[in-house]
Write a structure and sequence with these properties.
The complex is a heterodimer of chains A (584) and B (186). With 584 residues, chain A is an alpha/beta fold. Chain A has 3 domains: 3-178, Thiamin diphosphate (ThDP)-binding fold, Pyr/PP domains (Rossmann fold); 192-359, 3-Layer(aba) Sandwich (Rossmann fold); 375-545, Rossmann fold (3-Layer(aba) Sandwich), CATH 3.40.50. In chain A, strand 12, helix 13 (286-289) and strand 13 (300-305) form a beta-alpha-beta unit. The chains are: A alpha/beta (584), B alpha+beta (186).
């Protein structure tokens, strides 16, 4: 059945047909017809953010915590340019988003009209694909193809730029089933020969390791289950990137902890010393590899990824497997089982013994003494008091983000929302609102630093307006801690521009928005204060005043290999001198 | 790498893999890319090269199929073997890209470029220019008493060689199309 309708109506119809229930956005001149249609229906909820960047981050939080695409609607010009940071963030972390932008009428494009920007030009390198729709008849088809492209293969953000006259004009609506998506069909099944080659290597490996990443989570819950089955049945240790935390449970027996620049000692040394590295949906990012020439020098490497361009980009791969993680792991398990579930048990036993020695170093050790809260202690208490709850964590970017990855345990996928690739300060707060919206009854906590948090603090208004009880847990050291740490360690303690004078009173700030503020500065009060935060039925800003000069360890300085790690507490330093450096 | 799976014409046709994928040797490769002829597709391809720091030695593009609106882009690029592989993978990721072929690796192929040269002069130089044009099978497509415009097609090397000869004979303007290329045989 052919249906005639206006472009604006068509957008709403297409979103409904795609199963969209919420749109994050901000109105403006070039999207007025679409907002008028939103007003006249009740199926799709519109969440008014306070800044377009936040709309994108909120949609990212929604998408990453549900596995569904996030939808954003913003106006032309500044609306679109403000959203660019969020799009780039979603591109680097492979988050499926559909971003709709208004545009000046087609006949005014190129005239430097009011609020005109070359949106498709600006966003071409920061989207997976984008369109400028010049004909209402093509609008529905493009939106449906947009959802297909955003969610299939390696997910990512797509942008659809809709001029105002295209929104007003009538055209023919095409339902999703009628749209041809054949031009974008990424390879899903892995090459069986290559998978068999990997199984053969697995059977013989003496020091194997699974290096997992966000691709496992993006592949869906089945992939995480298969990863768990593979690791537990084979006894192979598992480490993960920041983006992959939760795919294998932190409470699992094969769990080594996060790897990389601020990863755990045992995870990084195991990566350095392994003889078979099975990379599952990760991309050998520079925060992971350190100095590439010295990266895991004695291992054969297999790489499973749905994106062929990720393979051999940074590190040479011996067994490349292009395909969806879930499908490849399923085939891999099938082949491994059919060949008799063989592993080199005695060697792997020895490997684990070695790993246990590294683990005994206790690389996350810190000292909580006196009247000042250590940030690590705050997170350890938060972890203890929220364990077992239906909990989602978002983070900002910086020291607190790495401490959250080190000290919080994630037992399920889609439970940690963080800006990994782009490292976008200001991500966590709006993201926590998107998560809360998707999971109204869950406990959502944004682990923040005061610097990052201030970058999108205006979203307290959104939280209060929509009664989103996400908790803002700010580890306040009155410093831009991560930069300050680098200045201390690498720039001769010249603390250039890392001290923000005149921070707001976060409790009063919360109150001014109509939310609750809690301040805690004494370790003795911390548990009660955290419980007060959790129990409060509404948004909370928790101002946790912490040690101002704490550094985040372990740390692999950039350009160093995995076995050259800076460690924290002086006590552990001696242990490493004696064992760690000698071991590898 | 399976020994049986080596593509025709590849330099890997040896008892040993002669190419070190990490070698710092820059090679020129000719790629042909079939794309949907839609708005912005060329910008996507060029943006990929500039954004990721790849080289473009030559680039040509034109629609080749009116019915399906597909265009063919021929790119000559240089890079280490690892970079060339990345370029191909990254091109393949662009949504309107249908196929990417590396002619340099896939087998014998033809490469042609068209060039126009304006040579001004009188007397001996003019006669010599015309004589050399004849040797190179360049056509005279425009003539005045003081100038010729030569048209020639050939490999880039042939066109370079002709340009070098014309320079002392009064070459005042050059226009080149860039390389179009195609595999030999069916």
């Amino acid at each position: 059945m052919k249906r005639q309708m206006s472009g604006a109506k068509m957008i709403i119809q297409a979103l409904k047909d795609q199963g969209v229930d919420v749109v994050f956005g901000y109105p403006g001149g070039a999207v007025l017809p679409i907002y008028d249609e939103i007003f006249q229906q009740n199926d799709i909820r519109h969440i008014l953010v306070r800044h377009e960047q936040a709309a994108v981050h909120a949609a990212e939080g929604y998408a990453r915590s549900t596995g569904k695409p996030g939808v954003v609607l913003v106006t032309s010009g500044p609306g679109a340019t403000n959203a660019v940071t969020g799009m780039t963030d979603a591109l680097l972390d492979s988050i499926p988003l559909v971003i709709l932008t208004g545009q000046v009428p087609t006949f005014m494009i190129g005239n430097d009209a009011f609020q005109e920007a070359d949106t498709v030009g600006i966003t071409r390198p920061c989207t997976k694909h984008n369109w400028l729709v010049k004909d209402t008849d093509k609008l529905a088809e493009i939106i449906h193809e947009g959802f297909h492209i955003a969610t299939s293969g390696r997910p990512g953000p797509v942008l659809i730029d809709v001029p105002k006259d295209v929104q007003f004009a009538d055209g023919t609506y095409v339902p999703p089933k009628k749209v041809d998506t054949s031009r974008y069909q990424p390879q899903i099944k892995g090459d069986i020969k290559a998978i068999t080659a990997l199984v053969e290597m697995m059977e013989k490996a003496e020091r194997p390791i699974l290096y997992t990443g966000g691709g496992v989570i993006n592949s869906g819950p089945a992939a995480s289950q298969l990863l768990r089955e593979l690791a537990d049945a084979s006894g192979i240790p598992v480490t993960s990137t920041l983006m992959g935390l939760g795919a294998y449970p932190a409470s699992g027996k094969n769990w080594l902890g996060m790897l990389g620049m601020h990863g755990l000692y045992e995870a990084n040394l195991a990566m350095h010393g392994c003889d078979l590295m099975i990379c599952v949906g990760a991309r050998f990012d520079d925060r992971i590899t350190g100095r590439v020439e010295d990266f895991s020098p004695h291992s054969k490497k297999a790489h499973i990824d749905i994106d062929p361009s990720s393979i051999n980009k940074v590190v040479h791969t011996d067994v490349p497997i292009v395909g969806d993680i879930g499908h490849v792991l399923e085939d891999l398990l099938k082949i491994w089982k059919s060949r008799g579930r063989k592993v080199n048990k005695p060697a792997i036993g020895k490997w684990w013994k070695q790993i246990e020695e590294w683990r005994a170093v206790n690389c996350l050790a810190y000292k909580q003494e006196g009247k000042i809260i250590k940030p690590q202690y705050a997170l350890e208490r938060l972890e203890a008091l929220t364990k077992g709850m239906d909990r989602y964590i978002t983070t900002e970017v910086g020291q607190h983000q790495m401490w959250a990855a080190q000290f919080l345990g994630f037992d399920e996928p889609n439970r940690l929302m963080t800006s990994g690739g782009l490292g976008t300060m200001g991500y966590g707060h709006p993201s926590s609102l998107g998560v809360q919206l998707a999971h109204p009854d869950a406990l959502v906590i944004n682990i923040a630093g005061e610097g990052s948090w201030l970058m999108n603090m205006q979203e307290m208004g959104t939280a209060v307006q929509y009664r989103l009880p996400a908790k803002q847990f700010i580890l306040n050291n009155e410093r831009l801690g991560m930069v300050r740490q680098w200045q201390e360690l690498l720039h001769g303690e010249r603390y250039s521009a890392t001290w923000q004078e005149a921070l707001p009173d976060f409790v009063k700030l919360a109150e001014s928005f109509g939310a609750k503020g809690i301040r805690c500065s004494d370790p003795a009060d911390l548990d009660d204060a955290i419980m007060e935060m959790i129990k409060h039925d509404g948004p909370v800003i928790f101002d946790c005043l912490v040690e101002k000069h704490e550094n985040c360890f372990p740390m692999i300085p950039s350009g160093s290999p995995h076995n050259e790690m800076l460690m924290g507490d002086a006590e552990t330093q001696g242990v490493i001198g004696n064992t760690g450096a000698v071991l590898v | 790498m399976s020994a049986l799976n080596i593509k025709k014409g590849s330099s890997a046709h040896s008892a040993y893999d002669l190419k070190n994928p990490n070698a710092d040797v820059h090679e020129a490769h000719t790629l042909t890319v079939t794309v949907d002829n839609e708005a912005g597709v060329l910008a996507r391809v060029i943006g990929l090269f500039s954004g990721r720091g790849y080289n473009i030695e030559s680039l040509t593009v034109a629609e080749i199929n009116e019915e399906y609106h597909t265009s063919r882009i021929t790119i000559v690029t240089t890079g280490t073997p690892q970079v060339i592989e990345q370029i191909k993978a990254q091109l393949g990721r662009i949504v309107p890209v249908h196929s990417v072929h590396d002619l340099t690796v896939e087998g014998p192929y033809l490469e042609r470029e068209l060039a126009l040269f304006k040579v001004a002069g009188t007397g001996d130089k003019r006669v010599e220019a015309l004589r050399l044009a004849d040797i190179f099978r360049a056509n005279v497509v425009d003539s005045t008493l003081e100038s010729f415009v030569f048209e020639m097609t050939g490999t880039s090397e042939k066109i370079d060689a002709f340009a070098d000869l014309m320079r002392p004979l009064g070459l005042i303007e050059t226009a080149r199309t860039g390389v179009a290329a195609m595999a030999r045989g069916a």
